Amino acid sequence: MKQICLSITLLLLFFTAGFTQQKSLKTPWADQVDQSNPLPEYPRPQLVRPDWQNLNGKWNYAILPKGGNPSEFDGEILVPFAVESLISGVQKKVGEENELWYEREFDLDLTRSKRRILLHFGAVDWEAEFWVNGKSVGSHKGGFDSFSFDITEFLQKGSKQSIRVRVWDPSDAGPQPRGKQVKKPRGIWYTPVTGIWQTVWLESVPESYLSSIYSVTDWENSSQIFYPEIHSSSEDLDLEISLLDKGTVISTSRGKANSPIKIQLSDPKPWSPDQPFLYDVKVRVLNGKKLVDEANSYFAFRDVKMAKDDTGHQRIFLNGKALFQYGPLDQGWWPDGLYTAPTEEALVFDIEKTKEMGFNMIRKHVKVEPARWYYHTDRLGMLVWQDMPSGDMGNRWEVRPGIIREGVNKERTAESESIFKTEWTEIMQEFKFFPSIVVWVPFNEAWGQFKTSEIVDLTRKLDPSRLINSASGGNFEMNGATVVGDILDLHNYPDPVMPDPGIFGKHSIMVLGEYGGLGLPLEGHTWQDKDNWGYQSFQSAEELKARYEGFIEDLLKYIPKGLAAAIYTQTTDVEVETNGLITYDRKVIKLPVTELKKLHQKLYFTR
After folding, report:
1. Quick one: average pLDDT of 198-207?
2. Which of 29, 229, 251, 301 could form a disulfide with 343 if both were Cys (CB 3.0 to 4.6 A apart)?
3. Is residue 592 part of a domain?
4. Is pLDDT at 167 greater than 90 in this prediction?
5. 437-441 and 467-468: which strand pairing?
6. Quick count: other Cβ atoms within 10 Å of Cβ 246?
């Protein structure tokens, strides 16, 4: 097997105590943010109700030493943008020795008669406690999963209400999942993200209501199986699911609440990157003939599995056919919003450009996006490989398949293991709804990698319908002669490589999980004026294009040998990394989109 070549540049960056402060670089959407109503879109497209209220906007904030309690506030912050971000209006770091406090008053506009009022947070990084009208309603740990509280009993008479939030985030000083965030940004490590970074909203629901739903395709039997969850259910409640095609009901099925409901499709329309067809769904909760609750959703009829092609190589099969998957490493960072895209148009921009470039897949790298991002990948037809955000790092990276050595798997504390498993479970339970996700990636490059077989088993139990890339570019744990998980994934910079097909091709899907990283800093579009970098840097787009074309020719040689997917680093520049296909401010696409698409079309095959 070819050995991974970790660039000297990257090694230096790991151990250099460089430091960057956030700059004033802006995307075209920064000045379009509505200060009174930022990100007004409905935040949960997988389960839509009409009676909701957005709480984004100006909140009061304070940064205090840990354990304090604000008697007054420092000023205003624009929620849901992290306190370190430019768009937040604050742009201050917090650190593990301090806590960030929020407070706001609002008028409750929702229907309250015989209804419950739920307070939802899309994501808050990391540990948070919440008060409504001065009374504690609960707490939450986890920077990437959504959560909610029933605040009905905490509401005051009349419309005037108040919310207070306390947040503590140790960044890389703690063991929690935090992705690329570090206290001292440098190289491939970026600015911390503290506090509320996704939409805060209220929802009015009945006493018994549909709290979640997802579905799984039964490809062989042309059917879709729905798994609804009803809160405060009783035996008297039924669930009715209607499927719609362009507004016309094509099938309806009824079953008991909190039980799987299978719906047969007479002429199913498969979802794929080429034809991303989505069925609309209407869900009704019924007590006899009485309507208790209703919501709108959607699904895609699509199937993903590992199987051998006609040459004996393991491939990723989509809807019964082997499909080579090729996409960029996508980190989802913004120079003005950090974790949060300035607007919905900005959120969609990267996906649309990736699609126009001829990629059919995106690897979402050590970050989880808002639900609306995945809705757009469903809608536009982009396959997604979803990483678990990394944390609690420090173990060795030693890619030697078949040899597991002491120190290769991280020895985590019981608390650290529990934090990881809890958040990974929450992420998977929430996002397995989205059909565009076809691969789960628990670990990246031994970044906190621990008990690999156990985590793969947990992942398989939570979602047996998708493939598992146990450790993208990480330490491969073996079960006899087979790699744990479905995929053997190498990283190599800058040139493409692949695993040895003679050793691994019969049992594992062989993948190049990261490569490339070709840098082209463009004056006026960088995070800082100098000391930007790529794994290999160029002075012109022409030089960059020639090198990239050579990479595609290399991939074409590996595909017949069994290479099933490849991921190029990366979609955009991020902070001092200038190895994106698009500049960090999204104002320049470095290589012509049409020429990239023409190049990439050479890679795809279906058998």
Report:
1. 97
2. 29
3. yes
4. yes
5. parallel
6. 7
